[in-house]
Queue: 3 jobs
Job 1
Amino acid sequence: QVQLVESGGGLVQPGGSLRLSCAASGSIFTNYVLGWYRRAPGKQREVVARITSGGSTNYADSVKGRFTISRDNAKNTVYLQMNNLKPEDTAVYFCNARDSTNPSRNYWGQGTQATVSS
């Protein structure tokens, strides 16, 4: 069983930055795909960014060029650096870990709130 705990959310002005972290209590093996998702008020949860064990990344069009996902397998941690934040980035951000060889092993964090407002 893997437990994920996010941190780093908060209130920031437009144009500002936040860095989210997600630490796993158990071992996330290198075959896990790690990702960040978000749910804005009144909207469905959407993928923000994902990173494979080999370091390949993909991003939602709305965050390309502004957000960067990275992982530290030694620390069982995934990060999301968010720059040039916009009010529409306001959401609860969730960390996800999914075993690419066994989709039933799919874990979620509890979420962290990021609010972009002046």
Job 2
Amino acid sequence: VQLQASGGGLVQAGGSLRLSCVASGGIFRLKAVGWYRQSPGKQREYVASIGAGTGIRDTRYGDSVKGRFTISRDSASDTVYLQMNKLKLEDTGVYYCTTMPPNGSWGRGTLVTVSS
């Protein structure tokens, strides 16, 4: 399964963005999906994940984004979303989506830049 993240951009602190992750090939709708990000000078960080099928309500979040980000998925379109609200400067980074658990194949991420 190849995943492609999109929707990044430049936003002011306090603003919102919605990222999308679409899949090509494989049985995407049967797989849990996660979002990770890599900020300048930092290791890749877990952001959020969502289950598949009967586990679609199994959503989890990293401590730094709890209460601000919401992950969801649309099985009909094989798309996973990450709604990001109340963005902070420290949310800046390249965001990647991947099937869970990560297998080392990250694909092309999408850059989110939060400005003051």
Job 3
Amino acid sequence: QARFVESGGGVVQPGGSLRLSCAASGFTFSNYAMSWYRQAPGKERRLVAAILTTGQVAHYAESVKGRFTISRDNTKNTVDLQMNNLKIEDTAVYYCKRPDGNIWGQGIQVTVSS
């Protein structure tokens, strides 16, 4: 069964940076696209970024374009999300997930606050 463990969250000031990492297991990682979602307080969970098996980026949400970068390492079974120039509205719980499945990790909290 697929399993995802997110790490790297925390509290950062506006304009700061964080790098999230997701360790995947339980399936052949290199055969599947991967994605990052986020859920802000009181809001629906939304897609942030997605990446294909080859490393080609498939999608960025408009709100993060130019600030976030998704990447993957098929040798380590990890997918990362580099977040730069963070804004208060980026505060959310971030999740990684296979786009074709319905298994979620526990998520990781990112708080942007002055």
